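User: Hi! I'm a student and our assignment asks us to look at how structure tokens line up with a sequence. Could you show me two examples?

Assistant: Happy to help. In each example below, the sequence comes first and the structure tokens follow. Example one:
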Amino acid sequence: MTDSILGFLRANGEQLDVDMASSLDIPIAELRDEVARLASSGDLICCRVTRFIDGRKIEGTSCRLSCDPPTPARGRKPGVKKTDDNNETNNY
């Protein structure tokens, strides 16, 4: 079961535990036990999440591989300042 969970996360990235259980056809209780074991060994990083999908509240555990950092967000990053060409040419 460990190999199927790790392989699924390698192929699909970060996933909720209920989505993994339904995709891998594993009972949710068994999957949660295995995910807890993998998280304690350092293979997975897990956190409790609450999502709202179509107005429904869904609570679960989000899991990802510990060696798979999330992709950086697009756009400007905090602390990065735009260079202003006018300030460079004006000497007051």
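Example two works the same way, sequence first and then tokens:
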Amino acid sequence: MTEGNDPVREEKNPVFAAGLSLLFPGLGQVYNGETGKGILVLFGVLAGLLVMLIPGAVIWIFGIYDARATARRMNEGAVPFREMRFASVVLFMAAWTVGVLVFLTLLALAAFAAFTVAA
């Protein structure tokens, strides 16, 4: 096959991937075509924030770094290029919505329990 017949693929934008992960933890991984990793980052951040602030923040920062680094490695050809699928974005946003609602519910229950402790 000649070079002229190779399909043209877009490059990933590392800054965009990092920005997506900054706004929505794990969405940068979904942009890079790694939906499973994105959902793990999302729930890792939510679980970490629920338990203590520091673990959630560390996982969030890791997700931002990983999204940027993976996009750069895909552009360099060091890791296989993966296309972002619209269905994956919809799945991720549904998981994000459910995750945040569960997080807020658990947080509210914990606050309620803390303030209603019998003396």
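Here is something you could point out in your write-up. The chain has a mean pLDDT of 90.
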